[in-house]
Design brief:
The protein is α/β, with parallel strands linked by helices and 353 residues long. Helices cover 32% and strands 19% of the residues.
């Protein structure tokens, strides 16, 4: 059983701010030693998103890492979809626009997988679906890491927290593509009208028009499925049960980062602005439930399981749904169970309030 520390949103006030809570929780996850190069892994939000973890929270963690004798840098990885974080230059630009700069953070922002998203270290993990995974090099070569995860819904995994941040956010493009491999879609030729909108969405040139119909080159496709939203005719069809296998791969891939930084990762889950979609979305939809609070732990599976339980409790109290599964129709416990099966953490936890 793993220990998880919780500070409720209901307790926040002028004498107990989010900054105060972060300072208290940080001391519960003592992974930073003097002289450590410390990655502070965040999601800076896509351009247009407004509900990512606030810069003041990240700046507080930077100051705490320095106080502990560490040398902090803020980091994230490039993405598979065609947004404003596709390469290292765009990622830096977007992070700066969203408030994560040298000046505001008092620490540099470093794209963990380099300019083109291919700078990584290969780690054997021996999973059922994935034998080895590629972890972004700046994270792989750090001495320690503080991972700050915004808890929210996700269309592929049902929920995004620490395990998803490990098994997707810490990987280079090749690693992300391995996790997304089951997502390579087919085309319903009867529904396709050949409008070509999906061609503009795919940054991998995996979609073309043949005889007036869309066609997917699965050798080029990375399976990240942003093309789905481009087709109002529902002609792009994911593989059956692809989200289940993506979750399995996500849970397995989380082990890669853990093997490189054993017992040197501390996790903070920020349960505010519980949006249905990921911070990768270029907009922020209204929250599906009220603010819950913050958690800290040394166990990524335990902190996510506790987060899910607390969010589901909030959902029931508010009477808006039965559970977070209702947001996308996806049970998010699947990727946690696979991570636990790989030895990444424990589904059982004790909650310290």
């Amino acid at each position: 059983m793993s220990e998880v520390f919780f500070r409720p949103a209901a307790e926040i006030g002028p004498e107990n701010t989010q900054i105060d809570q972060i300072e208290e929780l940080f001391r519960k996850i003592p992974v930073v030693e003097k002289g450590d190069l410390v990655a502070i892994k965040i999601h800076p939000g896509e351009y247009g998103n407004t509900t990512y973890v606030r810069p003041v929270i990240v700046r507080t963690v930077v100051d705490l890492v320095k106080e502990a004798g560490g040398i902090p840098f803020i980091t994230d990885t490039t993405v598979l979809y065609g947004g404003k974080r596709f390469n290292g230059a765009d990622l830096l630009w977007t992070a700066a626009v969203n408030g994560f700069t040298d000046g505001s953070m008092n620490a540099p922002f470093i794209p963990a997988d380099g300019l083109l998203g291919d700078d990584s270290v290969t780690v054997p993990i021996g999973g059922e679906y994935i034998d080895e995974i590629t972890v972004a090099s700046a994270i792989a070569k750090a001495d320690a890491m503080i991972m700050i995860s915004h808890c929210k819904g996700h269309p592929a995994s049902g929920f995004g927290g620490a395990v998803k941040n490990l098994g997707m956010g810490c990987l280079d493009k090749a690693g992300k593509a391995k996790v997304h491999a089951p997502g390579k879609p087919d085309i319903d030729l009867e529904s396709c009208v050949g409008c070509g909108k999906c061609l503009k969405t795919c940054p991998w040139d995996a979609i073309s028009l043949e005889n007036g119909k869309a066609s997917v080159d699965k050798n080029r496709c990375k399976g990240e499925l942003s093309c789905l939203e481009s087709c109002k005719f529902e002609a792009i069809v994911p593989q059956e049960n692809c989200t289940t296998e993506i979750q399995a791969r996500l849970g397995e891939a989380a082990l890669g980062t853990l093997k490189l930084l054993p017992r040197k990762i501390g996790y903070i889950n920020w349960m505010f602005d519980l949006t249905p979609g990921c911070d990768c979305f270029n907009f922020s939809a209204p929250a599906f439930a009220g603010n819950v609070g913050m958690l800290a732990s040394m166990d990524p599976v335990a902190i996510d399981k506790a987060s899910l339980d607390l969010i589901n409790k909030k959902i029931v109290e508010e009477g808006c749904m039965h559970s977070i599964t209702d947001v996308w129709g996806i049970d998010p416990k699947i990727h946690l169970e696979y991570a636990a099966k790989m030895g990444a953490g424990n589904m059982e936890y004790s909650l310290d309030i």
